[in-house]
Amino acid sequence: MNIGDVSRQSGVPPKTIRYYEEIGLIRPNRSENGYRAFTENHVHKLAFLGRARALGFTIEDCRTLLALYEDENRESVQVKTVAEDHLRQIEEKIEKLQSMRTTLTELVEKCAGDHRPDCPILADLSPVRMSE
Amino acid sequence: MNIGDVSRQSGVPPKTIRYYEEIGLIRPNRSENGYRAFTENHVHKLAFLGRARALGFTIEDCRTLLALYEDENRESVQVKTVAEDHLRQIEEKIEKLQSMRTTLTELVEKCAGDHRPDCPILADLSPVRMSE
DNA sequence: ATTGACCCTCCAGTTACTGGAAGCCCTACA
DNA sequence: TGTAGGGCTTCCAGTAACTGGAGGGTCAAT
Fold first, then answer.
1. What is the mean pLDDT of chain B?
2. How many CA atoms lie within 13 A of B125 on its CB side?
3. A13-16 long-range Cβ contacts below 8 angstroms, 24+ apart
4. pLDDT of A32-74, one tens digit each?
5. How far apart are CA B63 and CA A95, in angstroms?
6. Contact: A103, B55; criterion CB under 8 Å
7. Do B73 and A125 touch (CB under 8 A)?
8. Whole-number Å distance between alpha carbons of A121 and B57
9. In this model, does residue B91 exceed pLDDT 70?
């Protein structure tokens, strides 16, 4: 199978597939013409990667997960640990963003948003009290 | 003022200050010995930048906000627009992350996390049904 | 023979810094 | 006066995960 087919079947862009090969996530063979030659298994792996990436796992997490996926002797606790760590990081990000949202929402509400220069948003960002 | 003092007063690391100069956010003079020479105004600007960055504004947003901050003839609607756009992006990120969290939480709960290889997390990531 | 859709490699750019090497400058202290 | 310590300088490289584009082969059909 050529890269275009694999891309369509897995949903992963050709450029990304080449990149994944470059960093050793997948290892397709080559045809005589130099084209990458993929198998069904590659399609599965790429779909796996696509899904893992969509859940926000880093490439390094993906590498680990893929190895566990292929390891008959894995222990599910290994997978769970990776997922839990990632979940914790996501929760941290959410909290950070929510706190930004709170502040920004307040500021946006306070700002008249008209032709006048006075602006509570700038006033808040500025360490120097503006119109006080 | 040298970069160390400015860093302490503004809370922005020296490396970052140099970077901000490189990309034209601030333009300190130079002393005879080649050291950067900062003023109080630079400290204000850097604190402004630090705060804006903490609220998640991109560097380009910061450039715009800083220009507005210094523009006596600004209209607050210009600032508000930047903030609203940014707020929208934050909300999009939050939603994406929350959806990831939902999925991940479910998967983590379903996974036994023991020494056995069966794992709902991998099963979910995999396009091939595993133990069915 | 040529067109168009593939495929290839390699290079550069993205975001916002951060770390490190090599090397001046300045002050204090023995 | 020599030196030790910080602090300052520049420049280079690396981070994460791709993405775009140039320049150029390959393949199938017309």
1. 94
2. 33
3. none
4. 999 999 999 999 999 999 999 999 999 999 999 999 999 999 9
5. 26
6. yes
7. no
8. 12
9. yes
Place of tokens 């220009």: B67
B26 C-beta neighbours (distance < 10 Å), count: 20
Residue with tokens 């929760």: A91
Distance, in Å, from the CA atom of A19 to the CA atom of A50, rounded to the nearest integer, reads: 13
Distance CA B89, CA B61 (A): 13
Mutate to test the interface with B, among A45, A55, A82 (most CBs of B within 10 A): A55
Task: Look at residue B1 and tell me whether its pLDDT is greater than 80.
Answer: yes
Q: Which long-range contacts does B98-101 make (Cβ < 8 Å, 24+ apart)?
A: B98/A94, B100/A54, B100/A55, B100/A56, B100/A90, B101/A87, B101/A90, B101/A91, B101/A94
Q: Give me B31's structure tokens.
A: 């002393």
The domains of chain B, with CATH numbers, are 1-63 (1.10.1660.10)
Query: What residues contact residue B117 under an 8 Å CB cut-off, 6+ apart?
Result: A71, A72, A73, A74, A75, A76
Q: Which of residues 36-95 of A touch strand D (CB under 7 A)?
A: 53, 58-60
- Residue whose structure tokens are 């390094």: A60
